[in-house]
Amino acid sequence: MILDLDTAKKTAELLLQINAIKLNPKNPFTWASGWRSPIYCDNRVILSHPQIRIYVREQMVKQINKLYAKPDVIAGVATGAIGIGMLVADLMNLPFIYVRPDAKKHGRKNQIEGQYTSGQNVIVIEDLISTGNSSLVAVDALREADLKVKGMLSIFTYGFKVSYDNFKKNNVELHTLSSYDTLLEQALSTNYITDSDFQTLIKWKKDPKNW
User: Please, is 71 exposed, middle or buried when counting C-beta atoms within 10 Å of its C-beta (0-12, 13-18, 19+)?
Assistant: First the structure.
């Protein structure tokens, strides 16, 4: 769910500006999953742009303050959300932890890195939501550690129906700064893409696996 349309538009504009998101309907990218895609998103690029990472951090903190009482700890999902999650925790003067996809095979074999206490309230920070599966793995790990996940906040979502179904099924409240639909409207209004490109990009979202 997007909470503020102006923020969604501004975030989309900035992501396009710094090439954190690239749209290329004519020469699609291939995701790690094997899906062919006219869009590629790497929000870690935000960290290389001081003013933009400050904007994203401030908007995330604003939304957390609006939605929830101050949590006890901020958790980032590795690896993409470690940087932005730490910035959010710093601005809120809160402890920060991050969650690996799997427990380490050596040392203390941690899946959650950092210090926390059983029963603490946690807000999870993500950089990108596609199907939501990897994000929910992190939520499961936090819950298994007896932490109370109050919600998740992401920079961007593709808005796939399967992701909303997955979050609802796992009883996780998800909010995002911007979305695929908002991005396309912004890209079209600024002539970043053509009307033909727009139609191709809309069609992809309807069935990305078989596009």
Answer: buried
